[in-house]
Model the fold of this input.
Amino acid sequence: MMKKKSILGQAIDHAVLVLLLIIMVYPLFMAVWCSFKTNAQFNLSKWYPTLPLNFENVFYAAEKLWLYIVNTVFVGGVGTLGMLAVSTLAAYAFSRMKFFMKNFLYAMVLGLMMLPAIMTLVPSFMLYKKLVGTDSYLILIIPIITGGSVFGVFLLRSFFEGITESVFEAAKIDGAGDWVCYTRICLPLSVPILATLAIMQLSGAWNDYIWPMIAIPTATQKLTIAAAIKKEFISANSGSYPTLFAGYLISSIPLILLFTFSNRFYVEGLTSASVKF
Amino acid sequence: MKRSATAAARPNEVGLTPIKRIGRKLYESKKAYLFLLPLFFFLLTFSYYPAISGVYHSFFDWKDTGESRFTGIENYREFLSDTEVFWPSCLTMLKLLVPKLIINIFVPLIVAEMIFNLRSERAKSSYRLWILIPIVAPGVVTTMLWNYIYDPNFGLLTALYKFVGGHPVDWLNNTDTVIPAIIFMGFPWIGGTNVLIYISGLNALSPEVRESARLDGAGTFSIIWNIDLPQIFGQMRFFLINGLITGMQDYSVQFLLTGGGPGYYTMVPGYFMYQAAFTSGRMGYASAIGTFLFVLIMGLTVLSFRLGRKESDL
Done:
């Protein structure tokens, strides 16, 4: 009796989960198959995939959007590399070196986690406008370096502190200085966590649209993908849902690739924010 | 403690004046400071300076051209006495924030328990992967898909509603439906990492505890209530505080879909600030609103941290 009840319980559990997950993914999958429909096919039957597949929308969207994808990879890539360089250097100092005012300086870094982005949006815009100018790549890259490095230092410091002391002692006996310890011990050992941080940052750059739209008011060829979808693509194709869906699909492909090939780092990156608590 | 250790190591330092001692300490730390230099260059210039500049310019009539004129507390007085748009927008924010917080804390928790209590390991890991599918779509795409779902002519929801006999409704343009529609966005609210964060919290407890409770005759719900919930209290607090902080700043739906409308029906303070700055070019006024929101967010964050601490000490 007991066993029967628990088998039934498991079956209900599975059924509810599958139902919820189908509801969750249905709009996404619908967008995917509708991007391969002509407008006529879409009006006739949008709830399930139909043949023949029509590739026109997807090619059109790819042609319109590839430039913005390249932009995003460039901006996100440079920003992420900069963020990694800045935060690994600082995390090395905070974890492996002794110096004056260490706790105070570290509190200055961590304190920024409490600073809400909305407060600095307007004054940051004014500052960037004056220092690097709007419509430039730098106005997109510098915020990635600055914003990402606070959490980067936080995560990397505890990671560097966790590396066993004996490795460093052995290196120091062989005459290695801090620079050698940083480049030859800390960096190689932290490749997985660096990948996690990098993916977090890249997907952040991929998703951001409010800042790029503010920062790039006129030079639309410099927009990143999410901003371009909103500012360029939707307004140009607002009448045709299949075309819009094709655009959404094209803009997701790089993230799909990133996700498929680095699933583990991706998940770690997205869940590591809860480490703070 | 540290100071006496250095002093003992270098007896010649004893006679130095405090300023010289600090100078020497700074000099001895120069290598570490070199490692920190890039970070602090970025943080001081692009994080600390804007924050201070924002508070400072909130007392000025600061134009988007950069010129500014001191006006005292005029900016604060203006929006704090704005009962037409600003105060109602704060209420709208609460109407959106509170249900979203409750949903985002409890729905993923329920689903996490449902996955965690499955017996088949293979099913567990495939559900966990499945739940991540939505994160491959950029946020703007997800929101635009909901715009499609709510489309009064072609939308998914409209089709369902017609199927059960309703008349087409312009969900996002109707004052009766727009707030529930925004809350309903993202249904069933489980995509992404919240469920996974809960599951990893549940996994952190050793299985023996749960096993022995089961042997003592505890049912699934009693185990959830007495063992699991205390275990994942930290995660729940994270979703609460993080949800508060991000929810109070969020205006993505307003930005992408409603524009604060119909009327000012979905206006929130964040979007009010955005419009003040980037539609009207009133940077000083926007900075004042930003500073106000900062104080509000800080206050609530500290408060919810306190509450969380107290409960976990019990």
Remarks:
- Residues 27 and 42 of chain A are 14 Å apart (CA to CA).
- Chain A touches chain B through 90 residues (CB under 8 Å).
- Chain A has a mean pLDDT of 88.
